[in-house]
Write a structure and sequence with these properties.
By secondary structure, the protein is α/β, with parallel strands linked by helices. It has eight helices and 18 strands. The structure holds guanosine-5'-triphosphate and magnesium ion. The site of guanosine-5'-triphosphate (GTP) has 24 residues, from helix 1.
């Protein structure tokens, strides 16, 4: 499968089934009571994080995903069947956005998020029977499911991120540290997409994950090269290893990397400096680099020199950082659903009155406008909820146009 770390599509919850308007007909009863059942709720679209997937590729060509609608209710108080949910597997590390921002961050295996809720089923006429209204002939319609365009963004999750200029030997190092075998080449930009490797040594309390990303170049944070797009994949790594080619001006390389990390908002992240390719240096140069980079690890990914020590160093740093609480994702905690407007608001303007509020808008959607009794019920409810007096207070007179959601009608 190809590595795809972004996908965009529309999700639609299923519509709720309509309630039924029905009357019980038994042989010796001339006119039975109302027995129309409720419609089933529509199915929802659910995202579920799994470790079995490491790319968003299955969604790269999807335009929309729709859950099943609920069945209508029927006579004898039969409830309509619920629509089935659609569960979409996404890789762990997937963040879900809509046009308003972050909705969810699926960073644990098994975590799930309802991204488009199915609509509620409508009630049947039997639920409207009262002692004074024994034979209501109206029912509610099912509500439409939620609909929104989402953008999924994958961040591979690792403990240590390898950052370096192209050709520094990051992929070689990943392969020296772990069982991963990323492509290594003696030319820049060999690595085109992030690769993960698990470092699991005997004696380690817990394995840790290292991410290799494409090389960064000057201006990466402004969009040059490939590295910039991929920096986000190490943006949650607890520790960054700056991999420098010791044989090619490592001072300059480190300065370039620090500038790019700073521009990407990662300058506070703990780092370890790794001088690679020391097999190419003589003793004098190695000594010089020990003085210039006193804290750096000197290694050769090719010969394996210094790699075991580096591995232990990374392991202990990762463990200590983990015990300190690790890295918080850079964005505010996730929002489950859009805040809904409770209560009712009446606004006058443009020759009409607009009534808004979650409850009344739902009421309008549920109303069966074909049925005079249904419309009457709607009007009674408006009165009961205080909408009629709010409209009067706002100046509405009989004959004026009132809009609730998509629905227009005359004020009476
Ligand atoms: N002599 C020597 N060569 C090395 C060492 N590590 C890597 N190389 C070579 O350096 C070249 C680049 O190595 P890669 O591991 O592909 O480098 P990279 O940083 O992943 O490069 P990009 O993916 O292009 O950013 C390859 O020819 C490697 O064989 C080392 O320790 N010593
Ligand atoms: Mg590489």
């Amino acid at each position: 499968m190809q590595f795809v770390d972004e996908a965009r599509f529309v999700v639609l919850g299923g519509r709720g089934g309509d309630g039924s308007a029905s009357f019980n007909r038994e042989k010796y009863k001339p006119r039975g009571g109302p027995d129309g059942g409720r419609g089933g709720d529509g199915g929802s679209v659910v995202l579920r994080a799994t470790e079995d997937l490491s790319t968003l590729e299955p969604y790269s060509y999807r335009n929309s995903v729709k859950a099943e609608r609920g069945r209508h209710g029927s006579g004898s108080n039969k409830v309509g069947e619920r629509g089935e949910d659609v569960a979409l597997d996404v890789p762990v590390g997937t963040r879900v956005y809509d046009e308003e921002g972050l909705l969810a961050d699926l960073s644990e295996p098994g975590e799930s998020f309802v991204v488009a809720r199915g609509g509620e089923g409508g009630r049947g006429n039997s639920s409207f029977a009262t002692s004074t209204r024994r034979a209501p002939a109206f029912r509610e319609k099912g509500l439409p499911g939620e609909e929104r365009e989402v953008r999924l963004e994958l961040q591979v999750l690792s403990d240590v991120g390898l950052v370096g200029l192209p050709n520094a030997g990051k992929s070689s190092l990943l392969s020296a540290l772990s069982a991963a075998r990323p492509k290594v080449g003696d030319y820049p930009f060999t690595t085109l997409t992030p690769k993960l490797g698990v470092v699991d040594e005997r004696g380690y309390r817990e394995p840790f994950v290292v991410a290799d990303i494409p090389g960064l170049i000057t201006g990466a944070s402004e969009g040059r090269g490939l590295g910039n797009r991929f920096l986000r994949h190490v943006s949650r790594a607890r520790l960054l290893a700056l991999v420098l080619d010791a044989s090619e001006d490592p001072e300059n390389a480190e300065a370039v990397l620090r500038v790019e990390l700073h521009a990407a908002g990662l300058s506070e992240r703990p780092t370890v400096v790794v001088l690679n390719k020391i097999d190419l240096l003589d003793d004098e140069l190695r000594e010089y680099l020990r003085e210039t980079f006193p804290a750096a690890a000197q290694i050769s990914a090719e010969t394996g020199e210094g790699v075991a020590e580096l591995r232990d160093l990374l392991e202990s740093e990762v463990r200590e950082l983990g015990e300190k609480g690790g890295v918080e994702p850079g964005e505010p905690g996730h929002r489950t659903f859009r805040p809904s407007w409770e209560g009712v608001r009446v606004e006058a303007g443009g020759g009409e009155y607009v009534v808004s509020g979650e409850e009344v808008e739902r009421l309008a959607l549920k109303t069966d406008w074909e049925s005079p009794e249904g419309v009457e019920h709607f009007q009674r409810e408006l009165d009961r909820k205080g909408v009629v007096s709010a409209l009067k207070k706002a100046g509405a007179e009989p004959g004026d146009e009132v809009r609730i959601g998509e629905r227009m009608f005359d004020f009476q």
